[in-house]
Amino acid sequence: MKKLFYVFIPIFIILIIVSIYGDGEWGASTEMPDKDNWVGAWTASMQSPYDEGVSHKGFENQTLRLIIHPQVSGKEMRIRLANTYGSNPLSIEEVHAAVSKNGAEIVPETDQQVTFGGEQKVTIAPGEKEFSDPISFEVNGEDNLAISLYVSGDTGPATWHPHSMQTTYISSGNHVSDADNSRFEKEEAWFWLDGVDVIPDPPVKGAIVVLGSSIANGNHSTVDANHRWPDFLATRLNQDTSGINMSVLNAGISANQLINSKPDKGENAFARLERDVFSQSGVKAVILHQGLNDIRHHPEYDAEKIIERMKQIIKSSHNQGLEIYGGTLTPFKGSGMYTSRGEETRQEVNHWIRTSEEFDGVIDFDEALRDPEDPERYLPKYDAGDYLHPNDAGYKKMAETVDLSFFK
């Protein structure tokens, strides 16, 4: 009898729960795991507006068409808008998504309205973000997307991502559904849009976030070509026959630093970990490639100061259950801020990255890009011409340097 008692008690408890919540509530709860299936397909790290120019002026009665490149395909999509650095509530009257065709052109039959809580208009409080409602939208990892935003009232200074290496199209009036190029002017920056998530189809293992500065951002790569090294890495991951399908999210900010950053260059890498890395949907791993700007702009920093900050980022990432991989700092001899002392610091930091075993793995960008005859400089075929940034071929080489087995 005791055995029967222990068998029937759990069944009895389940029946009570069903009777309390009813079939409707019970059915709803079984769908909740689907909420965990979102994976970041694209991101841009937001910055505060400049003291002058387009971000300072903001927008009024204008449409902004932002062109982005999702790194994985999906059957559903949602977008994330950010008023991170706004001092006033941001009201966006209408948002549309479509497949990008050429320039500001879209594929008309793919155009869809995006809503927020079932409403066309969304208002975002200062310092906050808002996810859109999910929409059924066939996201193709090989196609660009056009996200069109219409603002009617004066937005004031705008949260943005300059140096996007991608053209944004701006026009007067509401043209979120216009299919052609005729009404739009150009700006190389993204505004307010800081993320796109998908329900991946086919499934992927999650997302890798690249935390870095201008080299991660893709400075000096071909504009509108998606030739940043994280773009090339995403292509490798999703074409490789090993089955390591993952999204790559680019959290690079031009001129950003590990320790101190000016307000218009984004918060320092450690300060923006939660917002730009840990909060990303489906994040599984981090690649850190940063520190060279600290060496260039702060000759008083020694290697230990930079290493200490890297250790903090490693510890925080591990505390989040994420693996983190370190990229060695690339050559910069010949650039305007090169010093022999800075070079010595770079070498010491790179030695630590390679030998300390603090990272879960090492990506030796320095070895891949340096000139064997003059290892303090780029190999000329990988140099963008400023002795600091790679060109398209250099960015491709960086992506090829990543050991994909890290992500198995």
Automatic annotation (TrEMBL):
Entries under Pfam families matching the protein: Lipase_GDSL_2
Ranges annotated as spanning the membrane: 5-22
A GO molecular-function descriptor: hydrolase activity
Keyword Transmembrane helix found: yes
SUPFAM superfamilies, sorted: SGNH hydrolase (SSF52266)
SGNH hydrolase-type esterase domain mapped to chain residues: 210-396
Keywords on record: Hydrolase, Membrane, Transmembrane, Transmembrane helix
Listed name of the protein: SGNH/GDSL hydrolase family protein
